[in-house]
Amino acid sequence: MDGVPGITQHAILSGHSFIHKFTAQPVGTHWYHSHYFNQRLDGIFGMFIVHDAPPVQPYFVLSVMDWYHVTADHLKTTSPYTNQGPAEGYAGPSDTLSSQDGVPISSLKYVSGLINGRGRYNEEKFPLSDFMLVPGEENVFRMCHTGAEFPYEISIDEHLLSISTMGANLIVPMQADFLFIYPGECYDFNILAKSGTFWLRAKVIQDPRAGDVPEIRAILHNEVNKEPHTKERSCTASNKCIVFNCPFKGYAEQLHRNCITVDQVATRTEVFPAEVTPSVHFINFGFQIGPSINAHQWVNPVKPMFCKDPMQYTRCPKDCSSSVCRCPYTLTVTEATPAILVLSNVVYSPIDVAGHHSIHLHGHLFEILQAGFPEFNKTTGHWSIANHDVLCRDPLCAEPYWSSGQFPDFHNRIGPVTDTVVVPAYGYVITRLRKPNPGYWMMHCHQELHLDEGMMLQLYVEGNIPEIPDPSVYEWICPEPALYTSNEIHAGSILSTI
Ligand SMILES: [Cu+2]
């Protein structure tokens, strides 16, 4: 269990407490947050660093997030999607921000952002977060995107980033000018610090040609915390910039940027053993019926699955290919069989609008085996032809499949290991579960509005599932069905440690 109420354990009721004992592993940069409604957006989160030995290099912890100056409840109740609300704070067709590839980023209007809780709004001059570098040495930044909707492009003026981990797992270090970070993702990077004062920038990943791209800043300095005068990294034909973790294959030529995509990253963790034939599962994140997975939108079951009451666990209909299924969508795998999950992002007309989705799976690490991207126009940078490796048998994409019939053989492939990956619009990522972990685990888009609308499923790993702790500590056990049919049952909050 990892704290998600209604999926892996009971919620912690208001005024109650719960002691979660766990082994602090794997080492690396993590964060924890509430999984009750949208409490995370109101600040119920924190960074969580696990060391295997006392650190020898100076390091800084960075929490980067977008912030809307209203409560998460307000965002939800004004939503035109989930509540038919007045859409206050929501963008329309004319002011929706898009990334360089022409893919819309969020249905919210961008308001502001924070680095470690500090940022500026309009022309205010509030103090910014600052970090005292040790010049001439490698300085380490441990960073997570703890926000709701808008991904950021991270850079440090006059410095190259050497990215060393993704999702708390070691990768063969890669140098880049810019690093894309999506909600829920974590990265470590080093810089060989120069002497002086420099801006650390987190820009919304909007098209760089868009002009006034929103940006959060922090100050890096050696001794005196004063505002830098440095300029952001410039990209030219003779000195092209490198962008790490692009959710697309490349940029418009005039932008002079090259992409490193996740499938070009190599792991530095131990090698997988040879395997028996894995089971293969296709999971499509689409917008056909609003944010959804294989034409399902998540709705809480009558009782959580861990209550082991088959009569009260709501099952989804077998066929969702012709009409929307709103139900607790559950994907079952077994502890004994390795599982390959094909995470795709296929949409068909008449909707034909996709977003990049940062997909997080609880309780597991997975290895990235392959990624596929749409073709793009080298003049505009916009996506042009959807990738056709994964197709769907029906317009709602209830049944995605591998189009060529011959699924790739990944026996000897070693990709990076993580727990969150961006599934590119009109493309896909193929992942392999590192070790199926018996239990009930949430898999969801970490973009808050997509999750709100039901872009979530429950991964049920059959096997030797540990007992849920004695429910007497909660004073209630798997409640009457009526209590689980409305959101009110999730009173109280809980901290997830994954
Ligand atoms: Cu999403």
UniProtKB/TrEMBL annotation:
<keyword id="KW-0560">Oxidoreductase</keyword>
<dbReference type="Pfam" id="PF00394">
    <property type="entry name" value="Cu-oxidase"/>
</dbReference>
<dbReference type="InterPro" id="IPR045087">
    <property type="entry name" value="Cu-oxidase_fam"/>
</dbReference>
<protein>
    <recommendedName>
        <fullName>Plastocyanin-like domain-containing protein</fullName>
    </recommendedName>
</protein>
<dbReference type="InterPro" id="IPR001117">
    <property type="entry name" value="Cu-oxidase_2nd"/>
</dbReference>
<dbReference type="InterPro" id="IPR008972">
    <property type="entry name" value="Cupredoxin"/>
</dbReference>
<dbReference type="InterPro" id="IPR033138">
    <property type="entry name" value="Cu_oxidase_CS"/>
</dbReference>
<dbReference type="InterPro" id="IPR002355">
    <property type="entry name" value="Cu_oxidase_Cu_BS"/>
</dbReference>
<dbReference type="GO" id="GO:0006826">
    <property type="term" value="P:iron ion transport"/>
</dbReference>
<dbReference type="Pfam" id="PF07732">
    <property type="entry name" value="Cu-oxidase_3"/>
</dbReference>
<dbReference type="GO" id="GO:0005886">
    <property type="term" value="C:plasma membrane"/>
</dbReference>
<dbReference type="GO" id="GO:0016491">
    <property type="term" value="F:oxidoreductase activity"/>
</dbReference>
<dbReference type="Pfam" id="PF07731">
    <property type="entry name" value="Cu-oxidase_2"/>
</dbReference>
<keyword id="KW-0479">Metal-binding</keyword>
<comment type="similarity">
    <text>Belongs to the multicopper oxidase family.</text>
</comment>
<feature type="domain" description="Plastocyanin-like">
    <location>
        <begin position="61"/>
        <end position="222"/>
    </location>
</feature>
<feature type="domain" description="Plastocyanin-like">
    <location>
        <begin position="327"/>
        <end position="462"/>
    </location>
</feature>
<keyword id="KW-0186">Copper</keyword>
<dbReference type="InterPro" id="IPR011707">
    <property type="entry name" value="Cu-oxidase-like_N"/>
</dbReference>
<dbReference type="GO" id="GO:0005507">
    <property type="term" value="F:copper ion binding"/>
</dbReference>
<feature type="domain" description="Plastocyanin-like">
    <location>
        <begin position="1"/>
        <end position="53"/>
    </location>
</feature>
<dbReference type="InterPro" id="IPR011706">
    <property type="entry name" value="Cu-oxidase_C"/>
</dbReference>
